[in-house]
Write a structure and sequence with these properties.
The complex is a heterotrimer of chains A (about 325), B (about 280) and C (about 325). Helices cover about 75% and strands about 0% of the residues of chain A. With about 325 residues, chain A is mainly α. Chain A folds into 2 domains: about 1-75, no CATH class; about 90-310, MetI-like fold (Orthogonal Bundle). In chain A, helix 5 packs antiparallel against helix 6 (about 125-140) and helix 7 (about 145-160) packs across helix 8. Chain A is globular, with a radius of gyration of 24 Å. The N and C termini of chain A lie close together (about 10 Å). The relative contact order of chain A is 0.14. Chain B is mainly α. Helices cover about 75% and strands about 0% of the residues of chain B. Chain B has helices spanning about 1-15, 15-35, 65-100, 105-120, 125-135, 140-165, 170-175, 180-215, 225-235, 245-275, 275-280. The longest helix of chain B has about 35 residues, at about 180-215. Chain B is elongated, with a radius of gyration of 22 Å. Chain B starts with a helix and ends with a helix. Chain C is α/β, with parallel strands linked by helices and about 325 residues long. Helices cover about 25% and strands about 20% of the residues of chain C. In chain C, the strands form 2 sheets. An 8-stranded mixed β-sheet of chain C has the order 6-7-8-3-9-10-12-11, sandwiched between helices. A 4-stranded antiparallel β-sheet of chain C has the order 2-1-4-5. In chain C, a hairpin with a 2-residue loop joins strand 4 and strand 5. In chain C, about 40% of the residues are buried. Classes of the chains: A mainly alpha (about 325), B mainly alpha (about 280), C alpha/beta (about 325). Chains in contact: A-B, A-C, B-C. Chains A and B meet through helix 1, helix 6, helix 7, helix 10 and helix 11 of A and helix 4, helix 5, helix 8 and helix 10 of B.
Chain lengths: ~325, ~280, ~325
């Protein structure tokens, strides 16, 4: 196997290990004790001790850590303090919602962002390019609550065409009605979440397309008698998209957990919201589990990104 | 001196850069001078949810506080937090980046791996947890922001150091018997300062963004005014979708955050264009 | 140090650079930058080192000055082993001032962000050549005048100077720490020919004034011949020949040297002797040829040359050649 892939694998495992360890110790440093929330005045000391023992909180910190790691390797993430269900189950109930949101964001970024970037590159220095550049600068600096408020104000409050939050209107509808409702509910959070990524995608696509169009091989392609469309499609596009793919890939991985604000504002039941809820509920095991999932997501996304980049860029050979 | 003149000339002619620069100066002025003129908003008044008028240019909130004075005090908090965060991330990131780029060996590898790992970790959730753990004082928020934004600064420093390390004047300095510490923290750092400086303005921008996000989630300092805290209260009162709509309440603080970040980003981009000779053509 | 002994003695110096591996289970290969080089340097002389680019001349100088770690071999200075400058710190400061180097590229060897005056004063203060800042400034101004620069240069940045002026600044910076031996690594190759001559004359003048010993490294035999007392010819990391400057033109010179000599342009109208054109490029230093390093390009090569590495022969007093066919009649 090549050193490169070995190194990447090593880094991936290390990333997961570091984030799990980091979160374990940070969470243990929380000022209040989760058991204190569960204890009621009627409980005897014995009952409290039993409760502490059940959650393993009476052990020394390092023992707790090693026990946790051992259980983790066997696929057991522990029990949620707040919900009293296995953490794995709890997270899995939230993960599809986050993935759905990310898929929507990906779709927006690819369908809108890349074409705009290519267009801006082809109009470099002209008025439309300058306008796009200004919008992109604003987009990169956007404050997500601001975007979310603006969307809510316009579409939910003024126009009253889209719902204000949640993933569907309770009680849980069934069949096609559910699909329709979720589709309506996902629009606003997806737009709010995709603004920064969209701006990044436009920016990177534009800049790298401009760079690529200055390369010698593009001039050669023109000299061979290809028309502009063909040169861009066959020669420039693949190379120009490499930085865009890298950026989108990294962003998507990070967004599995980074959508906290969006998911909170729109009450979207995803992983980001889960983190926020668990912090408020002092739910250690769930926080740790959520972080594990986030780290795994980041590692997987960066692998996929590398594969796509390798496919786009013939100079990179993963084999040797 | 020729080089410096060229830089100033380029910077003054850069329209976006000047907008950013003037904006940053205005924010600094408001943040430092404003609180001296306008008293700290406090207590309850009966002027609840007044729209913008002569007495309250930006209206009032649900407990009758003047939004404008809240925003001015918020500017001070934002400046304070982002400056502190920048200083902390600089104090961690620059030395680590220098060491990682300049030395070869196990220490450099460890720092490199740490930068890589921290760059990929989801920072916001981590910061949320840290803020919950450490308690919500303004110093803690700045500390968390600084601790978690060092990796990008370290990476920028490392990348410029890698280039500078191979320059002949560094070899000359070590041939002349100057100590490695002196070479690293004087000769290398002087030449890496351009990109590092640019990145520090970007750190300031993202620090405010994160600070506002944290206080929006209720993890900011409850005792000091922050744009995020104003927004949080507006959000909790359903200000965005209640009727009649107190738009000034939620719109103004958001605009402040966006303007602050845009100004710092414009400034950073313009500095980068002017320091990078390729962009000067 | 015994009287009349060499000032600097290099014994079997070898420097290998590891080649970055691309596969996990791969034999570690090395670039043979400098291999088994030995020579002596006497006080007051100028030793020229010539060779094509990639022959290891610069690496040799850097290894002696401890700018790169030696793989094996020893460097002896005034009778003491100073390999990699593994000596007590006080002694190391002395070495850093007594052995100095003038670099190749005058544009790259001065820190663009540091003023000339400070760049010159800083090492003086660090090595204890000046007790305080005022003394350092005074000495710097004096030295600047000696090399023909005005004292106003003190407060300027490097980019305000031409290549020749910058090289003079580099010389001042080295001279400021009172060096005994000055290594000049291609110090004039980056300059225009007219400026080259000025700087070479400056080197000669400074040698007398400060009692310097020079090691002059270059690829241009015409320049090296002009300034050197003895010349060392390197090819692919090995010494091919050590000769006095006049012995270099004898019939007993190494074939490689002969080829180099034949390439020197002659300022005469007489029919010039035949030019020896070498075929091919310098081979890779990762897999140097077995046998004689020069065999693949040698116009006199015989079958044995491809198999056995030739020894060093003293063909005339003080003239060493790594070629068995130059040994002479016996």
């Amino acid at each position: 196997m090549s050193r490169y892939i070995l190194r990447r694998l090593g880094r991936g495992v290390l990333t997961i290990f570091v984030s799990v360890t980091l979160v374990f110790f940070i969470v243990r440093a929380m000022p209040s004790d989760p058991v204190a929330l569960m204890i009621s005045p009627q409980m005897s000391q014995e009952q409290i001790d039993t409760l502490m023992h059940t959650y393993g909180l009476d052990q020394p910190l390092m023992t707790q850590y090693f026990l946790y790691m051992k259980e983790l390797l066997m696929g057991n993430m522990g029990m949620s303090f707040a919900k009293r269900i296995p953490v794995g189950e709890y997270i899995m109930s939230r993960l599809p919602w986050t993935l759905m949101l990310l898929a929507a964001v990906m779709l927006i970024v690819c369908i809108i962002g890349i074409p705009i970037g290519l267009y801006a590159a082809s109009r470099k220095g002209k008025l439309s390019d300058r306008i796009i550049s200004i919008i992109v600068t604003m987009g990169i600096s956007i404050f997500i609550p601001f975007m979310a408020f603006l969307l809510l104000y316009i579409f939910s409050f003024r126009l009253k065409i889209l719902p204000t939050g949640g993933a569907y209107t309770p009680p849980t509808p069934e069949g096609f009605e559910l699909v329709k409702q979720v589709a309506c509910h996902i629009i606003l959070p997806a737009i709010a979440l995709s603004i920064t990524n969209l701006a990044n995608a436009v920016l990177y696509t534009r800049n790298s397309m401009i760079d690529v169009l200055h390369e010698d091989y593009i001039r050669t392609a023109y000299a061979k008698g290809n028309d502009r469309k063909r040169v861009i499609r066959r020669h420039a596009m693949k190379n120009a998209l490499i930085p865009t793919v890298t950026v989108i890939g990294m962003q998507i991985g990070i967004m599995v957990g980074g959508a906290t604000i969006t998911e909170t504002v729109f009450s979207w039941p995803g992983i980001g919201r889960l983190v926020y809820d668990s912090v408020n509920a002092l739910d250690y095991p769930t926080l740790q589990g959520a972080f594990l999932i986030m780290a795994v997501a980041v590692v997987i996304m960066s692998f996929i990104t590398d594969l796509v980049v390798a496919w786009l860029d013939p100079r990179i050979k993963l084999g040797d | 001196m020729k080089e410096r003149k060229g830089f100033l000339y380029c910077f003054v002619r850069n329209r976006n850069g000047m907008i950013g620069f003037i904006g940053v100066m205005a924010i600094v002025l408001i943040g430092f001078v404003g609180p001296m003129i306008i008293g700290k908003p406090s207590g309850y008044t009966t002027d609840i949810l007044l729209p913008p008028c002569m007495e309250h240019p930006l209206g009032t909130d649900n407990i009758g506080l003047d939004i404008l004075s809240e925003l001015i005090w918020g500017a001070r908090t934002s400046l304070y937090v982002s400056l502190l965060a920048m200083a902390i991330s600089g104090a961690i990131g620059i030395p680590l980046g220098l060491i990682c780029g300049y030395t070869r060996g196990i220490l450099a590898d460890i720092i490199d791996a740490a930068i890589d790992i921290f760059m990929t970790l989801p920072m916001l959730p981590l910061m949320i947890i840290m803020a919950a753990v450490m308690g919500t004082s303004i110093i803690n928020v700045a500390l968390i922001l600084g601790i978690f934004s060092w990796p990008q600064l370290a990476r920028v420093t490392k990348n410029s150091t890698l280039k500078i390390r191979e320059m002949q004047y560094i070899e000359a300095a070590s041939c002349l018997g100057l100590s490695q510490l002196r070479i690293l923290f004087k000769h290398v750092l002087l030449n890496a300062s351009g990109p590092v400086f640019v990145n520090m303005t970007l750190v300031m921008a993202s620090a405010v963004l994160t600070e506002a996000s944290l206080s929006f989630l209720g993890l900011g300092d409850p005792d000091s005014w922050s744009w995020g805290t104003i927004l949080k209260r507006a959000w909790q009162q359903n200000a965005v979708i209640s009727s009649p709509n107190p738009w000034w309440w939620w719109l103004m603080p958001s605009l402040c955050v966006v303007v602050y970040v845009v100004c710092f980003n414009l400034l950073g981009t313009a500095l980068n264009d002017c320091l990078n000779p390729k962009g000067r053509e | 140090m015994e009287k009349g002994g060499p000032l600097l003695k290099v014994e079997h110096l070898t420097k290998l650079f590891p080649v970055k591996k691309t596969r996990f289970f791969e034999e570690q290969r090395h670039v043979h930058a400098v291999e088994d080089v030995s020579f002596e340097l006497y006080e007051g002389e100028t030793l020229g080192i010539v060779g094509e680019s990639g022959s290891g001349k610069s690496t040799l100088a850097r290894a002696i000055l401890a700018l790169t770690k030696v793989t094996s071999g020893t460097v002896i200075y005034r009778g003491e082993d100073i390999t990699d400058f593994r000596v007590p710190p006080a002694k190391r400061k002395l070495l850093h001032s007594e052995l100095q180097m003038i670099f190749q590229d005058p544009y790259a060897s001065l820190n663009p962000k540091i003023k000339i005056g400070e760049a010159i004063c800083e090492p003086m203060l660090a090595n204890g050549q000046a007790r305080n800042h005022d003394e350092a400034v005074k000495k710097t101004r004096h030295l600047l005048e000696i090399v023909g620069l005005r004292a106003e240069c003190f407060d300027r940045f490097p980019h305000e100077f031409s290549g020749g002026q910058r090289q003079r600044i580099g010389i001042v910076r080295a001279l400021a720490v009172n060096p005994r031996v000055l290594f000049c690594d291609e110090s004039v190759s980056a300059l225009d020919v007219s400026v080259q001559a000025q700087v070479l004359n400056l080197f000669n003048a400074l040698k007398k004034e400060f009692n310097l010993t020079y090691v002059f490294i270059g690829h241009d035999l015409a320049v090296i011949r002009y300034i050197s007392d003895r010349i060392l010819v390197m090819y692919l990391g090995k010494v091919m020949e050590i000769a006095r400057y006049d012995q270099l033109f004898s019939d007993r010179a190494h074939p490689y040297t002969k080829a180099l000599v034949s390439a020197i342009p002659e300022p005469s109208t007489a029919a010039r002797k035949e030019r020896i054109i070498l075929e091919g490029d310098i081979p890779s230093a990762v897999n140097p040829p077995e046998g004689c390093r020069f065999c693949q390009r040698c116009f006199m090569a015989r079958p044995e040359c491809f198999e056995v590495e030739p020894d060093f022969y003293e063909v005339e007093p003080g003239h060493f050649v790594r070629c068995p066919y130059m040994k002479g009649g016996e």
